[in-house]
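Q: What does the assembled structure look like for these inputs?
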Amino acid sequence: MARIDVRKTYKLYIGGAFPRSESGHSYEVTDSKGKFVANASLASRKDVRDAVVAARKAFGPWSARTAYNRSQILYRIAEVMEDRRPQFEEAVKQSEGGTAAAARGQVDAAVDRLVWYAGWADKLAQVIGNANPVAGPFFNHTAPEPTGVVGVLAPQSSSLLGLVSVVAPAIVTGNVAVVVSSYARPLPAVTFAEVLATSDVPGGVVNILTGDAAVLAPWLAAHMDVNAIDLCGVAGSAELATSLEVAAADNLKRVRRAPDAEPDWTLDPGLSPMTAFVEHKTVWHPIGI
Amino acid sequence: MAKKSTPFEYAPAPESRSIVDIKPSYGLFVDGEFVDGRGSSFKTVNPATEETLAEIAEASEADVDLAVRAARRAFRGWSRMSGRERAKYLFRIARIIQERGRELAVLESIDNGKPIKESRDVDVPVVAAHFFYYAGWADKLEHAGLGPDPQPLGVAGQVIPWNFPLLMLAWKVAPALACGNTVVLKPAETTPLTALLFAEICQQADLPPGVVNIVTGAGGTGQAVVSHPDVDKVAFTGSTAVGKAIARAIAGSDKKATLELGGKAANIVFDDAAIDQAVEGIVGGIFFNQGHVCCAGSRLLVQESVADELLAKLKRRMGTLRVGDPLDKNTDIGAINSREQLDRIRELSDIGEAEGAERWAPPCDLPASGFWFPPTIFTGVTQAHRIAREEVFGPVLSVLTFRTPAEAVEKANNTPYGLSAGVWTEKGSRILHMASQLRAGVVWANTFNKFDPASPFGGYKESGYGREGGRQGLAAYLKGADA
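A:
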């Protein structure tokens, strides 16, 4: 007789721990052919709030780390992902269908993207900051700083490369993130959470909620202790995206708008995923004897 | 303690207003011409005397539409013109502003109420500098680090406030034009005159028609500008409430926005600060431009051990401030810009007293007509007081104390705003520490209220988003460029 599988119910990732949803709800995750794979926690409004609290707590220490240290930690995430390639390949293939080679390609690209972003930690300020030659005896310079807690609606289709491509740029600059994963394809995000938990990323820097963006995003967009939001995960849902932008205006969140359709994640991302969530701070001081 | 000061007697030294020629009425500036509006009109008033200066057209939605169409038509030619040629127009404008500087300064002081020494020595020179600065960018955009082939956005709808009428115009128009955009700008209802004089300057510079359009009016006109479907970019400086309304109005559209909104800046004085310099900085931080400054240092945080000494010196210094005729060259504090604003300052100040803070102002004679408010400080203010939380936008300083640097940071950041902050200490490492901890877009250390076209300006949190000035200021007017 064939062995009976151990069916899993995956949990959320909040503040470095793996709690169940406060709601007690979970939902069935199926593969691309509709076959049951696992249960995932169905995050609730309360989970969003808990995640924001955890993220806010982590923001000060994370943003105060040296850029070199953040770079090391992002590189460490890539190393640990590399170790768990087979699991990611399986999760991507289950979630998105397609060939094993395509899944491998996506995992390659996701790991490479993390390595790319890791290198940006101690370079972005040099590229987008500057000394300002003001007309007077003043030292004056401008440098980017993280904006704070970023709500990230991860893409619905690209379950791993897309996820990494929205999370890495947010945290490499010193922000912390509350991520809502793809609803139908959450398992790569769950595995990614397990990688984060074992990669020296401080608890709370990335929080991952599995669940329905249409349900969770309005709470995230309206939350007064969230500083910014990436609406990528509602690409194509113009009405929902608009209502989220309206809610985000309550505390003037920085908004990365929802594209009409998910972008091609294999393209060079450029700087905008990072610059969307940094603040330029300018410091003046007189020069004199 | 606060002895009644005996101000020096000054003979009046009024700047002549004969240099300006204010017409009885003004139309809109659309497609290179002054045209009659289709809507009604309103009056602009000299806030120092309450005399009516001119009748101003109030642009209707249809007027705004004509202006946007003119800007759209002009965009084709302007955006395709080589940067080198665009630059020369901006250089021309900058030169004319310098040449007509006295005229602009006098007109600004008459319409706004700010002291002539500020309009003459700060506003107008910085306006000219802003056009010079961005003129130089027009043919160098591909070197700005904002992509290899930066492209303009299109038509920019710009709405500006009354506190620095011409300077805010320059902050908006110069980078927009340098990047190849065309603009429809709405000056504030109470201060339209220098923008209309700027329109004449555009004619004088032979700027192609439609590149700059100026539509005067109140909130309704501003709303028509920002929500016009053919406007690609919204730039707004003003209140946080209106900024949020704009963010909501453009939700779901492709419009890009920069918002420069309110502030409640902490000006932090440590016990080792050079106290006399700090006092000058505090005075400049809150009383410059009657406190009508979004980045004003309106919350003084002083270390407890030096609070008494500092307050005594501050009060003595405040006793020497001269409030009165904006056109008098000796005037330090001019008129409050409008009755509405005066009412707001009075209301919040009364609430400050009612909530238990102690109010003090030096004895000063205020003119009988016009809108005036004396330089005022509140001591015994707590973080819960409304005068410590809300933007007064007037010459009113709230004084709070702290014991440790951590407490100073905590109190300074305890606000939904994040536009600016000040730090006074002689210790370099503490300056850099505080600068890194303060959640504000501009940090002035051992100085305050300094502005320069090369220096980016803009806020964190509910003080808005985007930066104006410097290389960063270009990003607001180019496609795909976030910073």
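The two ends of chain A are 88 Å apart (CA to CA).
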